[in-house]
TrEMBL record:
<comment type="subunit">
    <text>Interacts with B3GNT8; this interaction greatly increases B3GNT2 catalytic activity, independently of B3GNT8 enzymatic activity.</text>
</comment>
<dbReference type="InterPro" id="IPR002659">
    <property type="entry name" value="Glyco_trans_31"/>
</dbReference>
<keyword id="KW-0464">Manganese</keyword>
<keyword id="KW-0333">Golgi apparatus</keyword>
<keyword id="KW-0325">Glycoprotein</keyword>
<dbReference type="GO" id="GO:0030311">
    <property type="term" value="P:poly-N-acetyllactosamine biosynthetic process"/>
</dbReference>
<keyword id="KW-0328">Glycosyltransferase</keyword>
<keyword id="KW-0472">Membrane</keyword>
<keyword id="KW-0808">Transferase</keyword>
<feature type="transmembrane region" description="Helical">
    <location>
        <begin position="26"/>
        <end position="45"/>
    </location>
</feature>
<dbReference type="GO" id="GO:0008532">
    <property type="term" value="F:N-acetyllactosaminide beta-1,3-N-acetylglucosaminyltransferase activity"/>
</dbReference>
<comment type="pathway">
    <text>Protein modification; protein glycosylation.</text>
</comment>
<dbReference type="GO" id="GO:0006493">
    <property type="term" value="P:protein O-linked glycosylation"/>
</dbReference>
<dbReference type="GO" id="GO:0000139">
    <property type="term" value="C:Golgi membrane"/>
</dbReference>
<dbReference type="Pfam" id="PF01762">
    <property type="entry name" value="Galactosyl_T"/>
</dbReference>
<keyword id="KW-0735">Signal-anchor</keyword>
<keyword id="KW-1133">Transmembrane helix</keyword>
Amino acid sequence: MFPNVPLYPGFVMPRGGNMQLTCRKARLLCVVIMFNICICVLMSVKWNRRRHDKDPRKVRIPSERFWRPQIASESFWNKEQQRLDFLYNPIINSALSDDSLVVLPDWLNDTGPLNPCDPDYRVFTQISDYNSLPQRFHDFLLHMRCRTYPMLINQPHVCDESPFLLVVVKSLIPHFDRRQAIRETWGRAGVFANRTVVTVFLLGNTSPLDNFPDLLGMLGHEAKLHNDLLQWDYRDSFFNLTLKEVLFLEWFSKHCPLAQYVLKGDDDVFVNTLQVIDLLEGLSDNKAKDLFIGDVISNAGPHRNENLKYFIPESVFVGQYPPYAGGGGYLLSGELAIRLYNASQQVVLFPIDDVYTGMCLRKLGLAPTKHSGFKTFDIDIKYRSTPCIYRNLVLVHSRKPQEIIEIWPWIVNPELDCQ
């Protein structure tokens, strides 16, 4: 009745009384085989899912809600920055066209005066210790949103020849001697090592509150004589150095966008211009594009001691500072300077200018690069009168006008043997 037909390799259906027992064994073996097949299928599915998860082209759907209502910071600057981050968010911008998609938190509607250059009287109530802060904070916070000031002296054609290097010096009106020392030495406009160099000085205005004598007549004469002054009508103070930075970047984007590189420095630094040009000429195109080098400060935060020059209260700002180059001087590409200007529109003005520039760099996803040739905290006192030391430096802070004039010949004198 049952032929000896193999059901699987090595198995033959027998005849006789053991038929029932043999059938049970066959069924058990089939179950084992099916179980193994299921295991293989499950392992294959798991392996394919793991490959799917690692595929960078796939978008993972989060298991929890990732959009949570934004809560306003207790610190005034942080709250203002949150507002800009919200408004410049590209996803939110596209959704704002449909009022049904985005409901703005109430605190985002607290925008202050319609004219950003009108005093922002919200600070009286939103900064708990406002009345006890130094006067410089009052001035800054009341006008923190204003970025538009009349230009009193302009040089719209100073970059007509598309300079290789634009030297930009932050100065104050009374510092005539410092500017002249720079013109006669490292900031001399013209041709250095076959490269065109242009120099401009950045100035604000004096305020009766600062008790400066009337020097505008002398300044007008200087402007006509040298054609290298840029002046805006705002109070030139320490906290307004950030404003000076933003106004310059705007000017640069309009009047000097083809300058290849920009060297920014204070009017009390010494710069080895020949070393700067030599450094720049050796750069690859990739390094030149995002170039921003200086004496970099990392892992820093605000000082809470109100007796210090760099004091920032918690009511104004909380958090760590991004890496930033000391404001005494740094070097960047002209292309990056234009991108910094665009980024600055999305960063609230901060009262410390070099920190603010670091914030703008971070907005671009960049950070400054430390260069050993920048000495914004000076060099060891025993080396300050050694001529050959300055041959390998890019920038050193600080030096008096007489010292700048003394050091410059050490740089350009071909007879000085520094081997």
